[in-house]
């Protein structure tokens, strides 16, 4: 039995943090689902930019839309949705078998909308309608405007993957938005089952602070933040508020660990995967990390609700001069900006290929 199978049996879902046409057409994703316990997939602008820039598998789709009046953004979403729908169809048996708890593929709204709630809502609704699959999640950043959009999208029945969360406070804001959206549906007599996950980013904490912290807590702050957030997550599930919604048929917004590939080459590839084994959660893993953990990973203790050690690490980080609350806000803003940069590179890549085809 692989360590990935062990995680699956301990009620942690493993999702692949990657997508490309090659991954789909070669049968690789199907193999990961069958052999490596992969039960979901996430994407983002950076992943798509790399896939399109490094492959000619999208050229036919680009060549079919050479008209200048078709904006690169519209063209991107056309073939991105094709990939996401194909992935969702491969994952549909998981979705059906788990009664809508697992088996999702995620696509992100334009990151340029991170501070525009109304346009995020409109684009989220449009993408979900075009996908025509119940197991497609619309990724929305957990920014101030994003939180407004999350509540309204959930209330409208649009499944949401909240992205770019970096602290338990940011997570709590996203969770409250989800709960408010479900409460609005219950009050309106609508189906309370609207899937959602909330994605907490881990490794970027350590990438920013490893050189600032004492050696004994370097590369441990991200996991400490995750442990503190997991306690909040468990507290929500034990609350009377959630109990009322569960009785109405709602399913939990699952906590998802994101950015779990290691940045420090001195760390083992499965460092964050091993540390964040936790019941009821999702871990979305880069392909390289997935394969490494399948080869030599191990599963030890599951994450609990005792945050004594996590609190100590955070306190030590503060003593070392790291303002944890301010850094969480900085990391979210930087993450948004990085996705905007990848988004612009993605559209430029599409337009460059299209111009070359016109010239030819």
What is the topology?
Elements (H helix, E strand, L loop, with lengths): L2 H7 L3 E5 L3 H5 L2 H8 L2 E5 L2 H9 L5 H5 L8 H26 L7 E4 L8 H15 L4 E6 L2 H12 L4 E6 L2 H20 L8 E6 L1 H7 L11 H17 L2 H8 L6 E5 L12 H5 L6 E4 L1 H10 L11 H12 L4 H36 L1
Parallel strand pairs: 1-2, 1-8, 3-4, 4-5, 5-6, 6-7, 7-8
List the main descriptive attributes of the protein structure presented here.
360 residues, TIM Barrel, 8-stranded parallel sheet, 11% strand, globular
Description:
It is a single chain. The chain is of the alpha/beta class. The protein has a single domain (3-359), classed as Aldolase class I (TIM Barrel, Alpha-Beta Barrel). Helices cover 56% and strands 11% of the residues. The chain contains 16 helices and 8 strands. An 8-stranded parallel beta sheet has the order 2-1-8-7-6-5-4-3. α7 (117-131) links the parallel β3 (105-108) and β4 (136-141). The radius of gyration is 20 Å and the shape is globular. The mean pLDDT is 96.
